[in-house]
Predict the 3D structure of the following.
Amino acid sequence: MSPTHAPAGAARQGSLRELNLALVLGRIAAADRPPSRADLATATGLTRATVSAVVEDLLAGQLVSEADPAPRAGAGRPARGLVLADQGPAGLGLEVNVDYLTVCVVDLAGQVRHRTVHRADLRPVAPADALARLVDLAGQARADAARQGLTLAGAALAVPGLVDDAGLVRLAPNLGWRDVPVPELLSGHQALTDQVPGVPALVVDNEANFAALGELHSRPPGPASFLHISGEVGIGAGIVLDGALFRGVRGWSGEIGHFPVHPQGRPCRCGGHGCLEQYAGQEAIVAAAGLLRAELPADTATARLAELAEAGDPDALRALHDAGTALGVAVASVVNLLDLDTVVLGGGYAPLAPWLCPPVLAEIAARVLTAAWSPVTVRPSTLGPEAAAVGAAESVVRRIVARPAGWLGRSG
Amino acid sequence: MSPTHAPAGAARQGSLRELNLALVLGRIAAADRPPSRADLATATGLTRATVSAVVEDLLAGQLVSEADPAPRAGAGRPARGLVLADQGPAGLGLEVNVDYLTVCVVDLAGQVRHRTVHRADLRPVAPADALARLVDLAGQARADAARQGLTLAGAALAVPGLVDDAGLVRLAPNLGWRDVPVPELLSGHQALTDQVPGVPALVVDNEANFAALGELHSRPPGPASFLHISGEVGIGAGIVLDGALFRGVRGWSGEIGHFPVHPQGRPCRCGGHGCLEQYAGQEAIVAAAGLLRAELPADTATARLAELAEAGDPDALRALHDAGTALGVAVASVVNLLDLDTVVLGGGYAPLAPWLCPPVLAEIAARVLTAAWSPVTVRPSTLGPEAAAVGAAESVVRRIVARPAGWLGRSG
DNA sequence: GCTATTTGTTCAGCGATTGAATTATTTGCC
DNA sequence: GGCAAATAATTCAATCGCTGAACAAATAGC
């Protein structure tokens, strides 16, 4: 991923157009106001002739559309602004979690055009049945998308667990799933999306990874490299390096929940001692604050905790401080290892960020050698609780923006 | 780095040839026996006509040369094998360390064609003087390279400390350097190498990073992603992801020495407590084994320790076991975070690997969730103590192999 | 209404790849 | 020894896509 590496395949004649399609479309996507063809030419270094030809392809493929010209001072023929199409390909994002199912549709511009949240305790539900419900919701989403002139070009499913390259869910402890062959179970149903060359029909990945992707593509765009930590029952991290998600050799990166914060500390269900999860996991924080954890929905407990902290409840404040310190120990090590300058607290941590950030920053200041030369930012996620589903859907459209040739029917 | 990301610049006509030059040359470099043009055509997907044209460019530019045909069974015109040229561009690798200076020259094929090690205690020497000595050694290396038909295309300097993007050595604690502007100090001397477009004249980086690169490009080629840990007085890690060194946002990745192994443990000079360095640093191991650390050269102490362990000395064995356990705690967290499947113990750890690996593996087995599905390999580095200098030199030639257009005088 | 200015398109030219035909060189068989 | 089959490498017309310059389109200012 960004590092200078040799190209994967042969550069044939058409590769040139493929690259320039991606280049121009990427510029249109990144611009903050609709650029003209002339703007794109100067920005990319291509000639206006080439840009025109490329844009013609993109217009024909419904990837961009012409917008009202951006008002400009001075003389000259008015420009025609180019924006990402709001009719055309879109991504389907799916999420299965402990107490809800989410389906959403995101268009090329990153707008959420459809969203459904289905609250239900999924733990007693068999995986196949949960997926069947999801297919049902996806069908409605697809119909709604079609009404809006959108074509679903691919789907991505977020799961709170370890996922295989093939989409096999090896283990989702809080959901009670083990070795669930998701693509196989879904293949029995109607296809979720249309088939588009270059866009896999279904990608399954960890929710923390997709949540990080959602953050990466949020507006305004985040930094190119950051650590996104989702604090739920477990603690997962999504690592974004140079604008790309780092998935590790087998896609199992980001397991930060069992970082040894207190090596001789509390026993953890993983078999170790003093794992981060035991000190900064949602259940741990809630318990430390003296709240009964009988209240089932995790977000309710989190909201309650935030209320108490807001009101100055000393137990809640102490619990949050301790959790933040534990989190800070782990985060500091990650920052030392990867030299990141931004850490995003997402998921259940986002509403607690006002109280978690200070101790995290304190640990970073104390433990990160290089913090003296350049500061590390710790901030809450800008996305809500559906970050993972939105990030999943965005990963689909981003793939099209990064490689539009597939969608346009070129060799890909 | 590697990840699917949009191309940086405009794809013009010549980019096609640039890409294919890199593609073909990369194949020649990666092949284990000299491939013919026909082999390259089938391997890359290009036509034989194109491959011939590309190879002609590479031959003219002295990047490859024709070798004896690989013996083949069956009829047909015999192939002409292509190998990386042993006359042509080469990389100059430099290293400043606490008790030695090293200069080496590595050719395109990765062969070390010249090597000088100058032993001296560099701590009392002013940075400018140390660099002047290095320039002297480099001049001899350049003359020797010229005698062998090699042209030095660029230089890379390994330093045991934090280095800036601009080559400023912010801090090299064991060397006593602070804010040393290396490129500036060297600019006063004769140029180390020739100027080649696309190849920076001098790159300065951390020794751990270059040592990891050396491991990456060693024969047989290592895995595409791994963690390389250099155990010296300090402990540095080089992170290789998808075949590329991961340098972090500012190039300061890999600071693993201050990983909190025992949060309430021994105070560390960094201000923290229980840092890995205090338990698995060379001085710590030597002290724990009951050896006097008055013996200055670090490699002597390490060798002595290995001898004692070999002889079954219980103090030495216990010290190594404890160090390995501490190292394992840190390594397990890194593996959990990045999902790597290979860890290489280099530098001072390499000769101690027989005793360090078992406890490291034990900690990984206990702490890495995914280790159950796929094992993690822990092995010593195959390179000797000059790994950093060789890795530095290799980084120069690798850049040429990855982007030969610059060397060939194309726009690149 | 005219000029200056900027946008976008058209078109000949050119570089690079392609695919088929051609040449080169060896093995195997009669 | 000579011929056919097989494999390697080169040659060449065709094609694709980018370039650069000329040209058409559309607006502001005088």
User: Anything to note?
Assistant: Residues 1-7 of chain A have pLDDT under 50 and may be disordered. The two ends of chain A are 18 Å apart (CA to CA). The first strand of chain A starts at residue 64 and ends at 67. Chain A touches chain B through 72 residues (CB under 8 Å).
